[in-house]
Amino acid sequence: MARTNTAVTGRSGPPASVPLAALTSYFLRLGTFGFGGPIALTAAMHRDLVQERRWVTAQEYSEGLALAQLAPGPLAAQLAVYLGWARRGVLGATLAGVAFVGPSFLMVTVLSVFYLRFGELGWIQGAFYGIGAAVIAIVARGAGKLLGSSVGRDPLLRGVVLVNALVVAWTEAEILWVFALSGGVVLAWRVVRERAPARGATVASVVPLWLVTGLHGPASDAMLARILGYFAKAAVVVFGSGLAVVPFLHGGVVGDYAWLSERQFLDAVAVSMITPGPVVITVAFIGYLVAGPLGGLLAAFGMFLPTYLAVVLAAPSFHRLTANRHLKAAVDGVTAAATGAIAGAVVVLGRRAITDAETGAIALATLLVLLRVRRVPEPLVIIAAGAVGVALTQLG
């Protein structure tokens, strides 16, 4: 994107100060009705804030998008925080972030309540029977989009994607040292490539039990602390898209800690797909199931606080970092690794969700609809898959 903003905004200088109420209202509305995942949400911000309202210059948007891609954390939420900071400083960043994430957090919390109370009902299980298969198709499509947008035709990055996909599919977990090695390999290769021409030339005890009660009963203080710490750690491996956190969460939530079963984890991913806002809001659903409302709040807080801090602390000097080719090379490697991990997660989750010919047909039909029908809302596809699941399990 061009550094100048005159062609897009029609003005040579930055926009006038935007009222806090208007800025907050916009992100509240986007967080409430913005479906389609990070790609659709970031595109909506460009259309609304740069082209139509002209609250943000093209240069500010470009720098915010670059920071969101470079820093760990969910892409759309980071961009929202940066644009809020660009117009109204730290207060604007805070209000934009809370307004953007808040609606989807509340929706997921409500869905968590119903799931915890009524998850054993036949029609609920039938709905998620269909939804789980559809989610596999959506994640597969997201991995394909990320492959094109973040990796392109670079053979080294494609190799990193393939290696990480195989590792995740084989081990059913993300291995952080493989991520780190991926970044180091890409950095080393690009440094060599650049230099070669040069040489040639106790919370639980003081709050009501219902606030900390999940699937396995009341959560202890240690469990609440573990939830906060785990999801804060998870936040630092999300590069570019919230889908990148899915394989990491699967390894910890299902494998290491055994907080949820395979089916419950797939249901958590499905919930994030049928609500607006960032995909990683699925952590609130997971936290709620493990430790009640407070668990959901701590999980979301742990996931989004690093995102907020990364943007607010880096934003004032980020323009100096955009020229650092070495930093960009390392991040390209890690981003390719994350894309590969998502592809591997499709295999891992697919083994659990696609269990018979019917779920296979649902997944295939979902993928065909997403590829053939332009601008079809993903929540609508999810709801349709749920209805098919209910029909198959209740009427079959």
Characterization of the model:
It is a single chain. It contains 16 helices and 2 strands. The longest helix is centred in the first third of the chain and has 44 residues, at 75-118. It has a domain at 122-306 and 316-395. It starts with 5 loop residues before the first helix and ends with a helix. It is an all-alpha fold and 396 residues long. A hairpin with a 2-residue loop joins strand 1 (213-214) and strand 2.
Order of helices and strands: HHHHHHHHEEHHHHHHHH
Please, what is the average pLDDT?
79
Question: Rounded to an integer, what's the Rg over CA atoms?
Answer: 21 Å
Strand order of the largest sheet: 1-2
State the separation between the terminal residues, measured CA to CA.
53 Å
